[in-house]
Amino acid sequence: MRSIYYLFTRFYVLIFFVLLEVFALTLVYKSHKYQEVRFLNTSGAFTGTVLDYVNEVNTFIHLGTNNKILMEENTRLKKMVAYQNVYPNDSSLPKNSGTYHFDYIPAKIVNNTINKSINYITINKGSKDGVQKGLGVISSNGVVGIVTNVSENFSLIMSVVSVKSLIGVRHKKTNALGNLRWNGEDPYTLQIDGLSKTLPIKKNDTILTAGFSSIFPPEIVVAIVKQLEPDESTSFYNMDVRLTNNINTLSYVYVVKNEKKKELDSLQIQMINE
Q1: Whose C-alpha in 20, 72, 151, 234 is 20 to 30 A from the C-alpha of 44?
Q2: What's the rounded mean pLDDT across residues 186-213?
């Protein structure tokens, strides 16, 4: 209390002057419409600028939360798209039908290599999140790879940019099947084997997932034909393609979980052994 009294006695002239200024300005704005409008406009612009800065700060602070919300929303939308791809003409099936195969586990990349002959990606989801060895991994732009090792909290993915990777694909226009592989040279250029040189394939044609495995959903865009030429020693094309994914700049991916994978794999093994 004594400090307040001391401040008032020392600066009472200044305080009195400020109060008179505020009172005088109030009278001016109340009696002159133009000054009142200018004041309101100026104060409004100032307030808007301050609020804009505050909003930018809040957006930055909550960036992680917003990214998580977007990932969850993308996961939900991917489930809807996958359902429509499998049953495009049957709207009578419920979306929670027992025949609905694919689920998606969103994950963040914590490590990624692209300069080795076999490249791996580490993600922050593991067995406690439902990730299993052998599951496919995609992003919003295409195929990423296949899970090879799983711990409780993390998983290791062998990237498609690996000499040991082999993924079944399909030429969109002709439905012809082939295999996507990498020759170990340019990490941004992959190769496709098994497409007959009698097929009408052109540069910039689209390559999709084959849709016949239990690993990847059908109709996932994989690559674009970069260049091709008939192989004189075989009946196939020598074909280079450009991935629709930029593996080197990925931050988030989706692990594809096929609820019927074990059943399908078991059936195929029985058929091979017969």
Answers
A1: 20
A2: 92
Helix (H) or strand (E) holding 249: none
How high is the pLDDT of residue 215? 85
Q: Name the amino acid, one letter, at 113.
A: T
Label residue 94 by pLDDT band (50, 70, 90): very low
DSSP code for 125: -
Q: Estimate to the nearest angstrom the gap between the alpha carbon of 62 and the chain centroid.
A: 18
Q: Which residues of 155-170 are buried (b: 16+ CB within 10 A; e: fewer)?
A: bbbbbbbbeebebbbb
How far is it, in rounded angstroms, from Cα 76 to Cα 73? 5
What residue spans of the chain are helical by DSSP H?
2-31, 33-61, 63-86, 261-273
SS3 content of the chain, % helix, strand, coil (to 5): 35, 30, 35
Phi and psi at 12, nearest 5°, equal: -65, -30
Work out the average pLDDT over 46-59.
53
- Which residues are within 8 A (CB) of 177 and not within 5 positions of it... i.e. 6 or more apart? 168, 169, 170, 194, 210, 212
Take residue 256 and report the two structure tokens written for it: 């594809």
Place of tokens 């804009």: 52
Q: Distance from CA of residue 193 to its chain's centroid?
A: 28
Mean model confidence pLDDT for the chain: 76
Among 253, 267, 202, residue whose Cα is nearest residue 229: 202
End-to-end Cα spacing for the chain? 96
Which residue(s) pair with 238 in the sheet?
229
